[in-house]
Design brief:
The structure is a homodimer. Chain A is mostly beta strands. In chain A, strand 8 and strand 9 form a beta hairpin. The first copy, chain A, has a five-stranded mixed β-sheet with strand order 5-4-13-8-9. In chain A, strands 6, 7, 10, 11 and 12 form a five-stranded antiparallel β-sheet that branches. Chain A has two domains: about 170 residues, Oxidoreductase, molybdopterin-binding domain (Sulfite Oxidase, Chain A, domain 2); about 130 residues, Immunoglobulin-like (Sandwich). In chain A, about 10% of the residues lie in helices and about 30% in strands. Chain A is globular. Chain A is built from eight helices and 24 strands. At the A-B interface, helix 1, helix 2, strand 1, strand 4 and strand 5 of A face helix 1, helix 2, strand 1, strand 4 and strand 5 of B.
C-alpha cells in the first residue's frame, strides 16, 4: 500500500465504490452529444465479411506478429519471437508461439510418421500417431523457454530493445498428449537405463539427452497445442514436453527415444548449452529455466498517453512450480508492492501479474521480481552477472557471449513524454 | 470399478505398474527391426519450411475446419461449427471457435471504433479501445454457447450426424478484458436502471437486453481471446461476455450500452429466444445455458480400429459454475463409472472428462451425464422433451421446431465394425 510512485493496492479495484473510481476517470472521451448521437461507421452500413472455415486475426492486427531473425529461411537457424507486449492473458496463441528451428519446419505426413522407443527396453516399440492417441491423454499448461532467451541482458549496457526482442523466446500453451511414463511402461525400462536420447525428424535430427527421472516425472509426448494439433514450427505431429526445462531439450518432430546408460554428448548439450562460466566450470547439464518475470505493459513501444491510471502487467514463470508472489517497484527498487496473480496459477506455466498504478507524469523506473512456491527468488541482475559474467556492448560475437539462462529482472524507464526504454536499475 | 462393458477406473493408469499395462499393449506397431533401422522419411532429407510471422496448422490438418451453413455468405445467417471430435484439451483454439453471424463480420477499424455508455447514468461516456485497455484487466476461461446449440436433439428420431453438426455451436476461450462493473462505475448507475441494452456495430445492429444484476456480477467487455485480440467473427475489437448465458446476448462488435428501466423487447428476445412451450407459456428471458455434457471421443466419424483399449473423452459445462462430476456409461445407462476431470476445472467453462475403456468388440452404447457444483444435474432426453416437446423427423420447418436450450445427453452406439452412430438410449 505504501509503495512509491503511484502503485496502488492490487485489489484496489475490487473494493469498488466511488472513492477510487473518481481517481480513474478521464480516459473515456466523455461527450454527451457523441453518446446520444452515435453515428454509423462504414462497417455498420453493409454486410460484413464471410466467416471462414478457419479464422485469422483482423487485418488491423497484422503488426501483431513474430519477429523473424532469418526471414528468407537461409541455411541457418530461424528464430520467431513472441510479441508479448501486444498480447494479454495467461498463455500464447498458437499463431504467435515462439519458434527456434535450425533447419526449418519439416512437412511431416502424420499418417506415416513413427515414434520409436528402443535401446535399454524390454521390448522395442514403434508407435503411429493413431496408436498414441489411444492411450490416456492429459492436458497441462506449461511454458517453453529457450535457454538463450533474454541473452541481451548479459550486455554490460542496456540493449535498446523491447520485450519481444529481449524476452520473445518464451511462450506458454496447453499441451495435450500422453505421459512419457505411459509409453515407457509399455516398452519396459531396463534397470540399467539412466538417460534417454530424444531425436527429431528434422533434417539435422536434433537430439538431446534427457535424464530418465525427468522422463518418469512429468514429461509428455504432446500432440495437441491449445486444443488443436501442434503447429508445424512447434513439432507437428508430436514433440517432447519437459515442463520447466530448457526449450532445446523438448525435442520437436519427435521420432526416436533411445534408452541408454550415459548421455549422448550431442551437439547442443556438448557445445551451445555447455557454456564456460567465469570460474572455469562448464554450465553443462543445467536444465532448469529458473524463476523469472518481466513487465509487458508498459514496455518499449507502448507509449503512455499522458499521466493518470494504468495497469502494470507482466508474466512470471518458474521450473520450480507455481509462481507464489510477484513484487513490482515504480521507483527503481526503493519500494515494492505486491501484484495480483491471475487465478488459477498453473505449475511451470505463465502467471499473469497485474497491479494498478497512477502515473504522475514524472520519470520512473518499473521492475518486477518473482518468487515461486518452492521458495526460489528471482536474482538481481548484479547477482546473475557476478556469477556468469557479462559482455561488452555492442555485442558482436554471440558464441563468446554469456548467453544462457538469464533470469534476472528487467527495468523499464518511463520518461516524461510517456516513452518507455530499457535501463539497468 | 464395477461399471459394465469395459469401463475402467478413471485413475487406472495413475496406479502404474505392470498389471494394467499388460492389458494396454498391442497398439504399438511392435517391430524390433523397424525400431533399430528407422529410415529417413522424405521430410528428414532436406530443409523444412520457413517459419512464418504467424503460424497456421499443417496442410495435413485442412480437414480440421469449421463447417459453414452458408459458405458463400448469402444474405442470411452464417453458422461456423467447431469440430470438437478433432480437438482435445480444455478450450477451443481461436481459428475454430464457433461463430453465428447474421450479417457477416464487420471489418472494424479499432482506432476509430467507440463504445458508448449512456441512458440512466450519471454521466454518459464514450470509450476508445485505447481508453478501455487502461483499466484493470481480468482473464477468465468461459464457454460461449448458442441457445440453439444441439437443436437436432429435439428430433423424434436420432439425426444421423456427429458432434460437430449436433453440438458445434459451443466453444470455450480465455477472455481478457475489463469487468463491465468497472465501466459502469465510471459512468455512475442511476438507481432506476434495471436493464442494459447492448448493441453491436454489425449492419443489423444486433441488440439484446441484459439484466443489470448480471452486468454487475461477472460480465466483461472482452478485448483478447486466448491471448490475442478477438477474432473478427467473435466480435473484434470488443464484445460482451456474459459467463454461462446464451451466446446471442454476448453482443459482438459492441458499440453501445444503454441503461434503461425495462427490456427493449428486441428481435431476438421477443422472437427467436422466446419459444412457445407445450404448456402455452413462452420461454422468454431464460438466459442460462444449463449443465450439459457430450462425448467427443469416440463419436461419429472416428472409427474404432478393432477391440482393445481406448480413452472415452468429452466436454461438460454449466452456467451453474464448475463441473463437479461426470458419469459415463458403456451399456446404455445400466451401469455408470465416474470420469476423471482435467484439473483445474474453471467455473462456467469447459471441463474435459476422460475415462479409460477396454472395448471387447461387441455393440455398446456410450453416454455421459454431468453435475455442477451447485447441484444441477443434466436431465435425461425424456425429461427435456416431456417439458419442451419434440419434432417429427425429418425436420423441415426450423421456426416451428423446439430448438432452444437442449441440455440432455447424447448417446453414441459403437457397432461391431467400429463405426459410431447417433442413437437415443
Amino acid at each position: 500500500m505504501a509503495a512509491g510512485n503511484g502503485l496502488l493496492h492490487r485489489r484496489a479495484f475490487l473494493a469498488g465504490g466511488g472513492t477510487l473510481a473518481a481517481a480513474f476517470t478521464g480516459y473515456a472521451l466523455s461527450d454527451t452529444a457523441a453518446a446520444q448521437q452515435l453515428t454509423d461507421d462504414s462497417w455498420s452500413r453493409g454486410r460484413g465479411a464471410l466467416i471462414p472455415e478457419y479464422a485469422s486475426p483482423s487485418a488491423f492486427e497484422k503488426g501483431v506478429a513474430r519477429t523473424l531473425s532469418n526471414p528468407r529461411g537461409e541455411p541457418r537457424t530461424q528464430h520467431a519471437r513472441t510479441p508479448h507486449h501486444l498480447l494479454n492473458g495467461t498463455f500464447t496463441p498458437n499463431g504467435l508461439h515462439f519458434v527456434i528451428s535450425h533447419s526449418g519446419a519439416p512437412d511431416i505426413d502424420p499418417a506415416t510418421h513413427r515414434l520409436v522407443i528402443h535401446g535399454l527396453v524390454r521390448r522395442p516399440l514403434v508407435f503411429s500417431l493413431d496408436a498414441i492417441t489411444r492411450y490416456p491423454l492429459v492436458s497441462r499448461m506449461h511454458f517453453v523457454e529457450c535457454g538463450g532467451n533474454s541473452a541481451p541482458m548479459f550486455s554490460n549496457e542496456p540493449v535498446q530493445a523491447g520485450v519481444q526482442a529481449i524476452h520473445g523466446l518464451v511462450s506458454c500453451a496447453e499441451w495435450t498428449g500422453v505421459m512419457l511414463s505411459t509409453l515407457l511402461d509399455e516398452a519396459g525400462i531396463d534397470p540399467g537405463a539412466t538417460w534417454i536420447i530424444a531425436e527429431g525428424s528434422d533434417s539435422m535430427a536434433l537430439s538431446r539427452s534427457v535424464p530418465i527421472a525427468k522422463a518418469l516425472d512429468d514429461a509428455m509426448v504432446a500432440i495437441y497445442q491449445n486444443g488443436e494439433r501442434l503447429m508445424p514450427g512447434n513439432g507437428y505431429p508430436m514433440r517432447l514436453v519437459l515442463p520447466g526445462w530448457e526449450g532445446n531439450m523438448q525435442v520437436k518432430w519427435l521420432r526416436r527415444l533411445e534408452l541408454v546408460d550415459q548421455p549422448a554428448m550431442s551437439y547442443y548439450e556438448a557445445r551451445t548449452y555447455a557454456q564456460v562460466l567465469p570460474d572455469g566450470t562448464a554450465y553443462q547439464f543445467y536444465f532448469l529455466q529458473d524463476v523469472k518475470s518481466f513487465i509487458t505493459h508498459p514496455s518499449p513501444g507502448l507509449r503512455l498517453n499522458g499521466p493518470g491510471f494504468y495497469e502494470i502487467s507482466g508474466l512470471a514463470y518458474s521450473a520450480g512450480g507455481r509462481i507464489a508472489k510477484v513484487m513490482v517497484t515504480a521507483d527503481g527498487g526503493k519500494s515494492w508492492a505486491e501484484a495480483a496473480l491471475q487465478e488459477p496459477v498453473h505449475a511451470k506455466a505463465f502467471a499473469r501479474f497485474r497491479i494498478p498504478w497512477r502515473w504522475d507524469g514524472s520519470p520512473v523506473v518499473l521492475q518486477s521480481r518473482a518468487w515461486d512456491e518452492a521458495g526460489h527468488v528471482q536474482p538481481t541482475r548484479a547477482e546473475v552477472v557476478a556469477r556468469r559474467g557479462q559482455t561488452k556492448a555492442p555485442v558482436t560475437n554471440l558464441a563468446a557471449f554469456p548467453s544462457q539462462h538469464y533470469n534476472g529482472p528487467t527495468s523499464w524507464a518511463v520518461e516524461t513524454d510517456g516513452n518507455v526504454r530499457h535501463v539497468y536499475a
